Amino acid sequence: MKQRGRKSVAALAVAGAVELVPRLGPPSGLTQVERTRWLAIVNSRPADWFGDEHAPILLNYIRLLSTADKLAEQLAKFEPEWFEADAGPQRFAKLTSSYTNVVAGIKSLATAMRLTQQSVYGPRGASTAAGRVRGGPKPWHALEG
Fold this sequence. Notes:
By secondary structure, the chain is mainly alpha-helical. It is built from seven helices and no strands. The protein has a domain at 23-118. The longest helix has 25 residues, at 88-112. The mean pLDDT is 87.
């Protein structure tokens, strides 16, 4: 039965039992970059957000991020004069197509795991947040120079 009236200081000071929920740890075999990404993603959400059943999806998400990095590196290194070579345009098209497919996979898995801004904001909340952005230089731009 619930106590009637005001609660005493002693009653307010009693804390309930706290259950610690372990976070999903990174699997073995990840590179240091992948491990860092895994921990950053898992730690960005409540402790019970990812369970063991989510590990394969998260692992594939992390791998797609690494693949996108490698493809982006290849695209950045692509020299304009390579278009003059016979295989240059085809190689560029394959790299671009692969990169586009990987990015689509990243988006799909991020959405499925509710990691995107769309899962954090509703339409009205996103509009409100966007309206709060002021023009002009940002404070962190002073740190870049």
